[in-house]
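Q: What does the assembly look like in three dimensions?
Context provided by user:
Components: two
Sequences:
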Amino acid sequence: MGALHKGHAALIRRARRLAGTKGSVVVSIFVNPTQFGPREDIAKYPRPLDQDRRICQREGVDLLFHPTLSEMYASDASVVVNESSLSAGLCGASRPGHFAGVCTVVTMLFQIVRPTTSVFGEKDWQQLAVIRRMVRDLKVPVKIIAHPTVREEDGLALSSRNSYLTPENRALSSRIHAALIASVMEAEAGETSVARLRRGLLRDLAAIPGAVTDYAAIVDAESLEPLKKLGRAVKARALVAVKLGGVRLIDNVPLSGVSK
Amino acid sequence: MGALHKGHAALIRRARRLAGTKGSVVVSIFVNPTQFGPREDIAKYPRPLDQDRRICQREGVDLLFHPTLSEMYASDASVVVNESSLSAGLCGASRPGHFAGVCTVVTMLFQIVRPTTSVFGEKDWQQLAVIRRMVRDLKVPVKIIAHPTVREEDGLALSSRNSYLTPENRALSSRIHAALIASVMEAEAGETSVARLRRGLLRDLAAIPGAVTDYAAIVDAESLEPLKKLGRAVKARALVAVKLGGVRLIDNVPLSGVSK
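A: Here is the predicted structure of the complete assembly.
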């Protein structure tokens, strides 16, 4: 989607390392309309293309794919790739059609670019899970690599939408990650009840002035199904979406259970 | 879907010619459950694999791809490729979900086999149009080749389902193609009114003893949109689906308008 920040730069560097000297690194920049809802921010979504191009050059990108709308979508386009299980909850619940738009455009980009490997950020954990499922189910011949979320010094996950925050809300926004980290520490201290961990998470998010929690969930990291208990064998993930002054921010962390 | 007949053999020969001596010809045989409706004939659909294999060998096929159900679909598969415009009418109206099943499995087969060129029969004209649209919209890097319908001597379009016909209905079934040819001749004689051509077609089909017409349509060959008038610039196609003794038969022919 462009508006490249240090998180994207880290994905590009990961791709550059994976490609080595013989492979090529392709970056796609396309603000995809089909993944925005009717009342979402596509018109004001940042498009600093010159800056994006410089970042790509600096990071050793071989090809920047920046198609026009009509190159991607015919006016009578009628084909959608839809994932119906992992897409249903979390961000999918408040953004109907979002993941169908994502799956469709990512399928198209994979068909056009035909990468052997593609790097996605863990910040959009549900998107990552949905894309892994899409690739698995449609047998797309690409290896999906997850790259850890890059954060500001105070913990805020990097996002192109962070630029919408007022200075006050930017200061408050670090408390989203802090709330997630508090859950991680409770789990490391031996708390295995997902209900109790989630209550603590919701309480911390509710304590952020002006914050409206869209969701706070502790789920199986792959299936995104709700969990009851953490445990050594359980790969859990805590995911949140919070609106701060109308800006929707998402973040997530792994939660590992310890045996008591 | 296997149960290969002379129509499939013609598609394979076309692929063999297109591949030349350097290219490889791959045939997929997979009776895809997701394109059958709940009351359709998947259980009794013919699966004469040994015979299919002999036909493939005789026609110079390099690779026969015959996956199991679980190789194609995970038990928690949740991704569907859906075409919503061309799929809505004609066969799609009486077979809900059929074209989503077709689009999904064909996308998967294209991802697995990664052909440069793929040959489809014109007998399933709507399927051909839907697959062309799917390939166009998802940017799948494959060239779709349409191959003319192969017919029995009396005109019946070859289909694996013809084997379900009683001898009586087999004899009557040739009148489906005859009805289409009558429309072609009326159009060649100068009839341009689609309503009148369609009335004649419906009348001829209704005159077949025991036949139940599912649809008879004269549409734009590519968009499958209804037409009012034939003309030189119009690519029209007449498509029919008829049940004979419970066996659903489809057929179609091109209709070219002549200037009066």
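Follow-up: Residues 167-188 of chain A form the longest helix (22 residues).
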